[in-house]
Amino acid sequence: MTALAGLHAIVTGGGTGIGAEIARTLAEQGAVLTLVGRRRAPLDAVAAQIGGACVAGADVSVRAEVDRAFATARAAHGPIAILVNNAGMAGSGPFGRVAENDWRRIMAVNLDALFHCCQSALPDLREAQAGRIVTIASTAGLRGYAYTAAYTAAKHGAVGLTRALALELAGTNITVNAVCPGFTDTAIVADAVDKIRSATGRSADEAVAELTRFNPQGRLIQPREVADAVVWLCRPGSASITGQTISVSGGETQ
Fold first, then answer.
1. Would you give the distance in Å from CA 16 to the centre of its chain?
2. Which helix (H) or strand (E) holds 104?
3. Of 141, 129, 124, 148, nearest to 74 (Cα)?
4. Considering just the CA atoms, what is the radius of gyration of the chain in Å?
5. How far is it, in rounded angstroms, from Cα 22 to Cα 134?
6. Which tens digit of pLDDT belongs to each residue from 159-210?
7. C-alpha 88: how far from chain center
8. Any idea of the CA torsion for 227, 228, 234, 238, to the nearest 10 degrees?
9. DSSP at 96
10. CA 161 vs CA 134, 137, 178, 207, 242: distances in Å
11. How far, in Å, CA of 200 to CA of 222, rounded?
12. Mind listing the pLDDT tens digit for each residue in 19-30?
């Protein structure tokens, strides 16, 4: 029997990149999946790969949509045992030029959504034999990067919420942790490479090198590496691991 057999896991932002890989990896371990996100087509594509996954469309920065999506999830697969807060968005530019609406949107997707999803799932997680909350933060939640003030602030908030909830819920059966990837081989990083090329005239290889220089291993992180860390935190044997930030970054934040 696989480690997570029959456990209901919700993955936000589960249609692309890290979220899609997390969903596939959890399914390999026997979990039943609900994929939540704004764009239906990529969610449906991942659900088709997994088989039996529920798809619930929602903007996770809007509480009413989260509550509705989680109700759909429960109707399909029963109470929630695992919540993976993966949905996020990046943004870059000089701090003095950050528009207020851009700041608010980055905060809403990367931080406010955690509040909505954790609160909405909490009653189920309290009743689960081993409730799990895993948030995909970033190395930007552990250190600073120039020209990413809003994103870095939001990810620091995500790490802070993880630590606070872990202590508050330590007397329960729920663990709360964050996985903090470095620059990962996803569409978000591909967009960053395009922006570097456009702004500097560098080649694609030079733009990638600008990002991988932060990683002592000199490479992009692979989505499966992040997914494997998430699955480890969800296993029964990880019951004593809570309030932690697992850096998947090649040694960047040691």
1. 11
2. helix 100-107
3. 124
4. 17
5. 11
6. 999 999 999 999 999 999 999 999 888 877 767 767 777 777 888 777 778 7
7. 7
8. -150
9. G
10. 11, 11, 10, 33, 12
11. 26
12. 999 999 999 999
Edge-to-edge order in the sheet of strand 82-85:
54-57, 32-37, 8-12, 82-85, 131-136, 174-181, 245-248
Is 147 designated active site? no
- Return all residues near 18 (Cβ < 8 A) that are at least 6 apart: 86, 136, 181, 184, 186, 223, 226, 227
Would you say 64 and 42 are in contact if contact means Cβ atoms under 8 Å apart?
A: no
Contacts 24+ apart (CB under 8 A), 221-225: 221/181, 221/182, 221/183, 221/184, 221/185, 221/248, 221/249, 221/250, 222/184, 222/185, 223/17, 223/18, 223/20, 223/21, 223/22, 223/184, 223/185, 223/186, 224/21, 224/25, 225/181
CB atoms within 10 A of CB 206: 13
Using the structure block, give the residue that is written with the tokens 């109700």.
Answer: 71
Q: Nearest 5°: phi and psi at 36? A: -120, 135
Residue 70: CA atoms inside 13 Å, Cβ hemisphere, count?
26
Q: What is the largest CA-CA distance in the chain?
A: 55
Active site residue: 139, 151, 189, 226, which one? 151
**pLDDT at residue 1 in the model:** 55
Residue 16 has what DSSP assignment? S
DSSP state of 61: T
Of 173, 170, 184, 2, whose CA–CA distance to 86 is shortest?
184
